[in-house]
Amino acid sequence: MKKIIQGNIKIITALAVAVGLLLFTFIVAQTNQQKDIITTSGTSTLSNKKIGWGIKREDNHKQPDVGSLNKRIIEQYDGICIGNPEMPYVYLTFDNGYEAGYTEKILAVLKENQVPAAFFITGHYVNSQPELVKKMIEEGHTVGNHTVNHKSMPDISDEQIKIEMMDLHKSIYEKFGYEMKYTRPPKGEYSERTIACTNSLGYKTVMWSFAYDDWDENKQGREEYGKKKVIENVHNGAVLLLHGTSKDNSNILDECIKEIKKMGYEFRSLDQFQR
Description:
- By secondary structure, the chain is of the alpha/beta class.
- α3 packs parallel to α9 and α8 packs parallel to α9.
């Protein structure tokens, strides 16, 4: 009888452990699922799965593959990533998280060549470089919202996104009377939730169809490399992303613009964007 009781206890213990493991697994799975689903300010739930923007380049000036799902998410919320494949239009954009001493030269080149551009700036930039921001606006360029603190959007809540976006929006308006309407997510990281959230704030997200490793301060002094990258990858509807912090970009910009024009392309502003 004692052996029977001991056997039953072992069976019950094993069952209890198994049930406990199943329950634990279920809780973990539910928790992980919840990380990718966050209720927005609206009535629906949208995925918060973090996506890092990327493209697959093509040869012979063909449009790159930006990914059908990524393109759908961006364009669903009135965003921009790549233009009309039939039209030879190019949209030049710069990310200016901080000033490295090259933006004055970049602005001079743009003015000389009569090329419009968009500059996506942070809270640090507008506070430290108000005269440059003023010059961008006065010379007819687009100033875009790159958020106050350059945080990865999927890592913060809707309310935090609103603060990051609208505090900078308010600052630019109060200082220059300028209303921003385009944004670029910091680090190129986003989710459907964050794109919907910024769109609800009145913003169009602007991604890109070309970029290269110009942001790396340790990889400057490669002007021929940079020029080759830009020229070889220009295409109809190109949204070019360059960094204003790159000395190489400031040195090659004039030649790149002239060469791209010779190839038959026309530089346009984001306000002239054609899908």
